Amino acid sequence: MDVQVQNLSSIRRKLSFTIPAERVDAEIVTAYQKIAKTAKVKGFRAGKVPRPVLERNYEAQMQEQVAGRLVNDSWFKALVEHKIAAISGPQIVDSGLIAKGQPFTYAAEVEIKPEVEVKDYTGLKLEREKFVADKKVIDDRLEEMRVSRAEMVVSKRKVAKDGDFAVIDFEGFLDAVPFAGGKGEDHQLELGSGSFIPGFEEQVVGMKRGEEKEINVTFPENYGSADLAGKPVVFKVALKEIKEKSLPALDAEFAKSFGVESIDEIRAKLDESYQTQEKNRVENDLREMLMSQLIERNPCEVPETMVQSQLEYMLGNVRSRMKQQGMTLEMLGLNEQTFNTMYRDTAVQQVQGSLILEGVARQEKIELAEGDFDAKLEQIAAMSNAPLDAVKRYYASDDAKHGMLSQIVEEKTIEFLLAKSKIKELPKEKLSKKKSDEE
């Protein structure tokens, strides 16, 4: 067998094959022997069809079987012999016919994972945001917790205001005729929420308890019902009750409802979570800047196979997070195709970044040290508050372990690059101004 390898690009190879006639002839004999066992030809018993008759009636089937066997057999042997790390199946671009006494030729292309030779990866000029804690954030989060424990009570006020929960009866009329779905009783409406037709809630504000009023509004042009879209209507509204949220006092009882003893403990936990979250954000922003500069200095081709795999990974993560929230991708007006279109550029950049980091690790001989894997599993267990044994079981499979080992090397490589960079710490407003100027 003769194989010629052509480098089409850094990510694609073309292999051209010539398989000797004697091998082709042997496969033809084998193929007709198999076909003969099940061939059905009028006038002949099963398994007794003569070879010439088989050749007249089953040549196409023979061609398919022999070509398939020759391609499968020769293809993988060639990949091993020529040390081609294929990441996709063969794409046949040219194929000859199977004929007795003739060699069989075909050509196929395949994608490979490129080895990027990374340049200019030390001495990068980066900016890290100088984090300054904002006490107002803690106050706001504490207030959110307070609102989450609020109780709905009847207001002592007689007049409804923005933010109240108005209990109303209503009925809508189009040209003095009631329309379907326009009636409700004891409906609790949060004034200012924007949940009703534009202009409705604003006219309930100022109504007195027990008051009846006609409210004039116009349905939006894009309203779901064609009979009402863009039409002016009148609602007869009766305000039956005014309710408001009663917020609990920030005291020990409130703290205990969250499993701690005092408001100070709540503040301390909120502050710890806030600082961790913000410091992680700052570091992630720094790493994004690092990767952006590396990609800019080392543009590289990426195999479509890797891009598609990354998109599948991203989509899986999004679907998983949305499922936890009781949502689906379709609720956002997206499907797999639109998601892939929207996030393709992101996937390409992530693949480029991964290839560049692999290149740096290879060039700098950054490798796993003894104990790195176990230390990472302990870190995951601590951060997720999960039993260490359960984490170890999860990462026991070959795929999961391989992925984690790659991630550890990638993290060590990023740490190396950051240590070799020139990092300037700046206030957030200076970073924002610089980004705006660049944009």
Report on this structure.
- The chain folds into three domains: 2-111, Trigger factor ribosome-binding domain (Alpha-Beta Plaits, 2-Layer Sandwich), CATH 3.30.70; 151-246, Roll (Chitinase A, domain 3), CATH 3.10.50; 260-438, Trigger factor, domain 2 (Orthogonal Bundle), CATH 1.10.3120.
- Helix content is 48%, strand content 20%.
- The protein is built from 13 helices and eleven strands.
- Strands 6, 7, 8, 9 and 10 form a five-stranded antiparallel sheet that branches. It has a four-stranded antiparallel sheet with strand order 1-2-4-3. A two-stranded parallel sheet has the order 5-11.
- Helix 8 crosses helix 9 (336-364).
- The protein starts with a strand and ends with a helix.
What would the principal axes of the Cα set say about the shape?
Answer: extended
Number of domains: 3
Sketch the major β-sheet: 5 strands, antiparallel
Mean pLDDT reading = 91
Number of strands: 11
Q: Give Rg in angstroms.
A: 35 Å
The number of helices is 13
* Low-pLDDT windows of residues: 434-439
Helix proportion range: 40-55%
The CATH homology group name of the largest domain: Trigger factor, C-terminal domain
Q: What is the CATH architecture descriptor of the largest domain?
A: Orthogonal Bundle
Structural class: alpha+beta
Q: How much β-strand is present in the residues?
A: 15-25%
CATH class of the largest domain: Mainly Alpha
**SSE pattern, N- to C-terminal:** EEHHHEEEHEEEHEEHHHHHHHEH
